[in-house]
Design a protein that fits this description.
The structure holds two protein chains of two kinds. By secondary structure, chain A is α+β, with helices and mostly antiparallel strands. In chain A, about 40% of the residues lie in helices and about 25% in strands. Chain A has a three-stranded antiparallel beta sheet, with helices on one face. Chain B has one domain. Chain B is built from no helices and nine strands. In chain B, strands 1-3-4-9-6-7-8-5-2 form a nine-stranded antiparallel beta sheet, with no helix packed on it. Classes of the chains: A alpha+beta, B mainly beta. At the A-B interface, strand 2, strand 3 and helix 2 of A face strand 1 of B. Strand 3 of chain A pairs parallel with strand 1 of chain B, so a sheet runs across the interface.
Protein backbone atom coordinates (compact mmCIF):
# COMPACT_ATOMS: atom_id res chain seq x y z
CA UNK A 1 0.00 0.00 0.00
CA UNK A 2 2.00 2.98 -1.24
CA UNK A 3 -0.88 5.43 -0.86
CA UNK A 4 -1.83 7.19 2.34
CA UNK A 5 -5.08 6.00 3.89
CA UNK A 6 -7.63 8.80 4.08
CA UNK A 7 -11.05 7.36 4.85
CA UNK A 8 -13.28 4.35 4.57
CA UNK A 9 -16.99 4.44 3.77
CA UNK A 10 -19.22 1.45 4.44
CA UNK A 11 -22.18 1.05 2.07
CA UNK A 12 -25.50 0.81 3.90
CA UNK A 13 -26.84 -2.30 2.20
CA UNK A 14 -24.14 -4.96 2.06
CA UNK A 15 -21.28 -3.31 3.93
CA UNK A 16 -18.90 -2.98 1.01
CA UNK A 17 -15.89 -0.77 1.74
CA UNK A 18 -15.21 2.34 -0.31
CA UNK A 19 -11.65 3.36 0.52
CA UNK A 20 -10.14 6.72 -0.28
CA UNK A 21 -6.37 7.16 -0.37
CA UNK A 22 -4.05 10.03 -1.15
CA UNK A 23 -1.42 9.35 -3.79
CA UNK A 24 2.09 10.75 -3.92
CA UNK A 25 0.99 13.24 -6.57
CA UNK A 26 -1.64 14.65 -4.20
CA UNK A 27 -4.61 13.18 -6.06
CA UNK A 28 -7.27 10.90 -4.68
CA UNK A 29 -7.40 7.20 -5.40
CA UNK A 30 -10.38 4.96 -4.66
CA UNK A 31 -10.62 1.24 -4.06
CA UNK A 32 -13.72 -0.78 -3.46
CA UNK A 33 -13.73 -3.98 -1.44
CA UNK A 34 -16.72 -6.29 -1.56
CA UNK A 35 -18.14 -7.56 1.71
CA UNK A 36 -16.00 -10.41 3.00
CA UNK A 37 -13.15 -9.83 0.53
CA UNK A 38 -9.80 -11.35 1.38
CA UNK A 39 -7.56 -8.54 2.57
CA UNK A 40 -3.96 -8.21 1.47
CA UNK A 41 -1.31 -8.67 4.10
CA UNK A 42 -0.15 -5.09 3.61
CA UNK A 43 -3.69 -3.68 3.76
CA UNK A 44 -4.11 -0.53 5.85
CA UNK A 45 -4.69 -1.34 9.51
CA UNK A 46 -7.81 0.87 9.50
CA UNK A 47 -9.33 -1.34 6.81
CA UNK A 48 -8.41 -4.52 8.67
CA UNK A 49 -9.97 -3.16 11.85
CA UNK A 50 -13.15 -2.11 10.07
CA UNK A 51 -13.46 -5.53 8.43
CA UNK A 52 -13.13 -7.19 11.81
CA UNK A 53 -15.83 -4.91 13.19
CA UNK A 54 -18.32 -4.90 10.30
CA UNK A 55 -17.93 -8.11 8.31
CA UNK A 56 -19.57 -10.43 10.79
CA UNK A 57 -20.62 -13.93 9.78
CA UNK A 58 -24.20 -12.69 9.64
CA UNK A 59 -23.35 -9.85 7.26
CA UNK A 60 -21.23 -12.07 5.03
CA UNK A 61 -23.93 -14.70 4.96
CA UNK A 62 -26.57 -12.12 3.98
CA UNK A 63 -24.34 -10.92 1.14
CA UNK A 64 -23.74 -14.47 -0.08
CA UNK A 65 -27.48 -15.16 -0.01
CA UNK A 66 -28.22 -11.95 -1.88
CA UNK A 67 -25.67 -12.82 -4.57
CA UNK A 68 -27.11 -16.30 -4.99
CA UNK A 69 -30.63 -14.90 -5.33
CA UNK A 70 -29.48 -12.37 -7.88
CA UNK A 71 -27.65 -14.99 -9.89
CA UNK A 72 -30.73 -17.22 -9.89
CA UNK A 73 -32.87 -14.34 -11.14
CA UNK A 74 -30.38 -13.56 -13.91
CA UNK A 75 -30.29 -17.18 -14.99
CA UNK A 76 -34.05 -17.07 -15.41
CA UNK A 77 -34.06 -13.96 -17.60
CA UNK B 1 -12.11 19.13 -2.70
CA UNK B 2 -9.67 18.21 -5.43
CA UNK B 3 -7.42 15.94 -3.42
CA UNK B 4 -4.57 18.39 -3.88
CA UNK B 5 -3.31 19.53 -0.52
CA UNK B 6 -3.77 23.27 -0.06
CA UNK B 7 -5.52 23.62 -3.42
CA UNK B 8 -8.67 25.65 -3.76
CA UNK B 9 -10.93 22.62 -4.31
CA UNK B 10 -14.61 23.41 -4.62
CA UNK B 11 -15.17 25.19 -1.34
CA UNK B 12 -16.76 28.55 -1.81
CA UNK B 13 -15.47 30.06 1.37
CA UNK B 14 -18.91 31.56 1.98
CA UNK B 15 -20.18 30.68 5.44
CA UNK B 16 -23.75 29.46 5.64
CA UNK B 17 -24.06 28.23 2.05
CA UNK B 18 -24.58 24.63 1.01
CA UNK B 19 -21.32 23.21 -0.23
CA UNK B 20 -21.24 20.78 -3.13
CA UNK B 21 -19.40 17.58 -2.28
CA UNK B 22 -17.00 17.26 -5.22
CA UNK B 23 -14.15 14.83 -5.68
CA UNK B 24 -12.15 13.43 -8.56
CA UNK B 25 -9.38 10.90 -8.87
CA UNK B 26 -8.35 7.48 -10.09
CA UNK B 27 -9.60 4.11 -8.96
CA UNK B 28 -8.43 0.52 -8.99
CA UNK B 29 -10.28 -0.83 -12.00
CA UNK B 30 -10.50 -4.55 -12.71
CA UNK B 31 -12.09 -6.72 -15.36
CA UNK B 32 -13.37 -10.22 -14.64
CA UNK B 33 -15.28 -12.87 -16.53
CA UNK B 34 -18.21 -15.08 -15.57
CA UNK B 35 -15.92 -18.10 -15.50
CA UNK B 36 -12.17 -18.56 -15.68
CA UNK B 37 -9.87 -15.55 -15.65
CA UNK B 38 -7.80 -13.36 -17.95
CA UNK B 39 -4.08 -14.07 -18.01
CA UNK B 40 -3.21 -10.49 -18.90
CA UNK B 41 -4.90 -7.17 -19.55
CA UNK B 42 -3.91 -3.57 -19.05
CA UNK B 43 -5.93 -0.85 -17.41
CA UNK B 44 -5.45 2.19 -19.59
CA UNK B 45 -7.79 4.43 -17.65
CA UNK B 46 -9.71 4.20 -14.40
CA UNK B 47 -10.92 7.59 -13.24
CA UNK B 48 -13.95 9.15 -11.64
CA UNK B 49 -15.66 12.36 -10.68
CA UNK B 50 -18.25 12.38 -7.93
CA UNK B 51 -20.60 15.26 -7.16
CA UNK B 52 -22.79 14.45 -4.20
CA UNK B 53 -24.34 11.09 -5.06
CA UNK B 54 -23.79 11.41 -8.80
CA UNK B 55 -20.82 9.44 -10.10
CA UNK B 56 -19.19 9.72 -13.49
CA UNK B 57 -16.44 7.24 -14.27
CA UNK B 58 -14.44 6.18 -17.30
CA UNK B 59 -12.57 2.95 -17.67
CA UNK B 60 -10.54 1.39 -20.46
CA UNK B 61 -9.07 -2.11 -20.62
CA UNK B 62 -6.98 -3.83 -23.28
CA UNK B 63 -6.73 -7.60 -23.28
CA UNK B 64 -3.21 -8.84 -24.04
CA UNK B 65 -2.39 -10.46 -27.40
CA UNK B 66 -2.73 -13.84 -25.69
CA UNK B 67 -4.41 -12.46 -22.60
CA UNK B 68 -7.74 -14.21 -22.70
CA UNK B 69 -6.44 -17.05 -20.55
CA UNK B 70 -9.37 -19.16 -19.40
CA UNK B 71 -11.86 -16.28 -19.37
CA UNK B 72 -15.27 -17.01 -20.86
CA UNK B 73 -18.84 -15.84 -20.64
CA UNK B 74 -19.96 -12.39 -19.60
CA UNK B 75 -17.43 -9.68 -18.78
CA UNK B 76 -17.66 -7.51 -15.68
CA UNK B 77 -16.02 -4.20 -14.80
CA UNK B 78 -15.89 -2.88 -11.27
CA UNK B 79 -16.98 0.58 -10.12
CA UNK B 80 -15.36 3.23 -7.95
CA UNK B 81 -18.51 3.42 -5.78
CA UNK B 82 -21.27 0.91 -5.13
CA UNK B 83 -24.39 1.54 -7.17
CA UNK B 84 -27.60 2.34 -5.31
CA UNK B 85 -29.95 -0.57 -4.66
CA UNK B 86 -32.95 -0.55 -6.95
CA UNK B 87 -34.54 -3.93 -6.47
CA UNK B 88 -34.61 -6.69 -9.06
CA UNK B 89 -31.54 -8.33 -10.48
CA UNK B 90 -30.35 -5.41 -12.60
CA UNK B 91 -29.89 -1.76 -11.87
CA UNK B 92 -31.93 -0.98 -14.92
CA UNK B 93 -32.28 2.69 -14.14
CA UNK B 94 -28.61 3.07 -15.03
CA UNK B 95 -27.01 1.85 -18.23
CA UNK B 96 -23.47 2.75 -19.20
CA UNK B 97 -22.28 3.07 -22.79
CA UNK B 98 -19.00 2.35 -24.52
CA UNK B 99 -17.35 0.46 -27.32
CA UNK B 100 -14.93 -2.30 -28.20
CA UNK B 101 -12.56 -0.23 -30.25
CA UNK B 102 -9.77 -2.40 -31.70
CA UNK B 103 -11.40 -5.42 -33.29
CA UNK B 104 -15.11 -4.97 -33.84
CA UNK B 105 -16.18 -1.40 -33.10
CA UNK B 106 -19.19 -2.82 -31.30
CA UNK B 107 -21.19 -0.41 -29.18
CA UNK B 108 -21.36 -1.62 -25.60
CA UNK B 109 -23.89 -1.31 -22.83
CA UNK B 110 -22.92 -1.70 -19.21
CA UNK B 111 -25.70 -3.02 -17.03
CA UNK B 112 -25.29 -2.13 -13.38
CA UNK B 113 -25.92 -5.04 -11.07
CA UNK B 114 -27.99 -3.63 -8.27
CA UNK B 115 -26.42 -3.27 -4.81
CA UNK B 116 -23.07 -4.40 -6.13
CA UNK B 117 -19.96 -2.77 -7.45
CA UNK B 118 -20.09 -4.29 -10.90
CA UNK B 119 -21.34 -3.58 -14.40
CA UNK B 120 -21.99 -6.43 -16.80
CA UNK B 121 -20.82 -5.72 -20.34
CA UNK B 122 -22.97 -6.63 -23.34
CA UNK B 123 -23.22 -5.42 -26.89
CA UNK B 124 -25.91 -2.88 -27.77
CA UNK B 125 -27.98 -5.89 -28.96
CA UNK B 126 -27.47 -7.77 -25.69
CA UNK B 127 -24.93 -10.22 -27.13
CA UNK B 128 -21.61 -11.22 -25.61
CA UNK B 129 -18.59 -9.17 -26.67
CA UNK B 130 -15.67 -11.42 -26.01
CA UNK B 131 -13.72 -12.05 -24.00
CA UNK B 132 -11.17 -12.15 -26.79
CA UNK B 133 -7.49 -11.46 -27.25
CA UNK B 134 -6.46 -7.88 -28.05
CA UNK B 135 -9.93 -6.46 -27.50
CA UNK B 136 -10.06 -2.91 -26.17
CA UNK B 137 -13.05 -2.00 -24.03
CA UNK B 138 -14.01 1.58 -23.16
CA UNK B 139 -16.94 2.45 -20.94
CA UNK B 140 -18.33 5.75 -19.68
CA UNK B 141 -20.55 5.41 -16.64
CA UNK B 142 -22.95 7.76 -14.90
CA UNK B 143 -24.98 6.54 -11.95
CA UNK B 144 -26.26 7.21 -8.45
CA UNK B 145 -24.07 5.79 -5.74
CA UNK B 146 -25.26 3.89 -2.72
Amino acid sequence: MGNIFNKIEVTPDHKHFQIRELKDDGLWHRRLLLCGATLAEDEHQEVKDKAEEVWTDEVKSAWATFQAEQEAQRSNT
Amino acid sequence: MSGLINSAGSRSGVIGTTEIDYEEGSYTATMTSASGSFSSFSVNVGRYIVIGKLVWARVEFTVGASGIGTASGDIYFNLPFAVKSQGGSYGVDFVATGSERYATGTLLQGIYLTATTLVRIKSYANANVGPANSYNYVLNMTYERS
